[in-house]
Amino acid sequence: MAHHVQSLIEHYGYFGIILILVGGIVGLPLPDEIFLTYVGYSVYRETLSHFPALISAVVGAAGGITLSYYIGYRFGLPLLRKYGPKIHITEQKIDVTKKLFAKIGPILLVVGYFIPGVRHLTAYIAAINNYPFKKFAFFAYTGAIIWTFTFITLGEVLGEEWRYVGLYLSRYSMYLIALFIIIILIVYFIFKKRNSPK
Predict the structure, then answer these.
(1) Of 14, 23, 96, 126, which residue is 20 to 30 A from 63 by alpha carbon distance?
(2) How far is CA 85 from each of CA 20, 34, 46, 93, 157, rounded to the nearest angstrom?
(3) What integer is the mean pLDDT of 131-154?
(4) Which of 140, 151, 68, 65 is nearest to 110 (CA)?
(5) How many Cα atoms within 13 Å fall on the side-chain side of residue 95?
(6) Of the candidates 46, 38, 39, 32, which has an alpha carbon nearest to the alpha carbon of residue 143?
(7) Quick one: DSSP state of residue 116?
(8) What's the predicted TM-score (pTM) here?
(9) Residue 125's pLDDT is what?
């Protein structure tokens, strides 16, 4: 991983950071957090400068999640309406999802970056639920700044120990996903109970 990233950065510089993160956010199987931590390690080694690396990472993450939003907006809902009933996704379920996203959309867009797998879906879900782009952009880009800053700074602070981030993520990522799903389910059932006819 480190060798490939180093080669990419040597050939494409900061533009390489943008390319990798756009691909990773859209859904390519790339270890985004490990990559960002390595970028931070490169800053530690003075191969990269902190501010340009951070700006490139934010541009890549924002570009990727915007592209995901566009794909969801352009193709998502028609596909769901056409093929959804075959996999038990009805109009009623789509409406419930819209209401849930309306309640906790900002949380999903900001915190979702830190949950592997979730960040690939939030923009798509936002788009198919017609979540306003201005609101989407505000929270999604805020999340991109926090997420990229966190892992780049972590790599810079850890220095030669940057690889421990990958070790801990591989060990505990499933627990984070499970916790996130539990929280979403709790919010969903509370919301459903409050809005059910008495």
Answers:
(1) 96
(2) 35, 38, 54, 10, 50
(3) 92
(4) 140
(5) 4
(6) 32
(7) T
(8) 0.75
(9) 82
